[in-house]
Amino acid sequence: MTEAGRNGVRQSATAGAIYGTIASMAVVAGGAHNTGIGRLLVVTVLTLVIFWLAHVYAEALAHHLNAADRLDWGVVRTAMAKEWPLVTGPLPALAVLALGVIGVLPDERAIRLMLWCGVAQLLGWGITFARRQHWGWTMALTTGALNATFGILIVILEVIIH
Questions:
Q1: Which of 46, 47, 51, 89 has the fewest beta carbons under 10 Å from its own?
Q2: Tell me: the pLDDT tens digits for 82-105?
Q3: Phi/psi of residue 69, each to 5°?
Q4: What is the rounded distance in angstroms from the CA atom of residue 20 to the CA atom of residue 122?
Q5: Within 13 Å and on the Cβ side, how many CA atoms surround 75?
Q6: Are 105 and 99 in contact (CB under 8 A)?
Q7: 7 or 124: which carries more pLDDT confidence?
Q8: What is the DSSP string of 85-103?
Q9: What does pLDDT average to over the chain?
Q10: pLDDT band per the 50, 70, 90 thresholds, residue 35
Q11: What angle, rounded to 10 degrees, do the helices at 37-67 and 3-31 form?
């Protein structure tokens, strides 16, 4: 694979991880105080899997329509792998939420820590993305901060709602 191809795969993986993290944070923030933490974790994971399947379907359908040919299962497998970071990206934050499920942390603390872990992940992925683009550190930190802002807005929403 060429360097440009590897960069495209890494950028796609980073984008999927960012999207998955934002989606998982939104689900948790929305259901934080009216859903048990175990159910909240299950619903969040199921939501991520459904989003992943939707992305795979959309990519396979787009390829099928553009190629005007039969469905190519190789395209489906490639799309499944390409979109998988949408599910795996938020795993560190979901692991924090799972600490509440198993009783290591009180539910409220696990939820808040999960959301802040998501903010930290978004900051890190923003910086990583920018550095992969060979942007300078000022732009990388700005990109990371902008990315983290989406997470902070979700945290604020969770506080306002509940």
A1: 46
A2: 999 999 999 999 999 999 999 999
A3: -135, 180
A4: 10
A5: 16
A6: yes
A7: 124
A8: HHHHTTHHHHHHHHHHHTT
A9: 89
A10: confident
A11: 140
Give the CB-side neighbour count of residue 139, counting CA atoms within 13 A: 8
How many CB atoms are closer than 10 A to CB 146? 13
* DSSP 3-state of 145: helix
**Using CA atoms, how far apart are residues 153 and 132, in angstroms rounded to an integer?**
26
For residue 145, the number of C-alpha atoms closer than 13 Å in the C-beta half-sphere is 6
Q: 92-115: buried (b, 16+ CB within 10 Å) or exposed (e) per residue?
A: ebbebbbbbbeeebebeebbbbbb
Cβ-based neighbour number of residue 65 at 10 Å: 9
- Read off the pLDDT of residues 103-150 as tens digits, 9 standing for 90 and up: 999 999 999 999 999 999 999 999 998 999 999 999 999 999 999 999
8: which 2 tokens? 């495209």
CA distance 127 to 116: 17
> What's the CA gap between 64 and 17, in Å, rounded?
26
CA 3/CA 157 separation, integer angstroms:
40
In one-letter notation, the amino acid at residue 22 is I
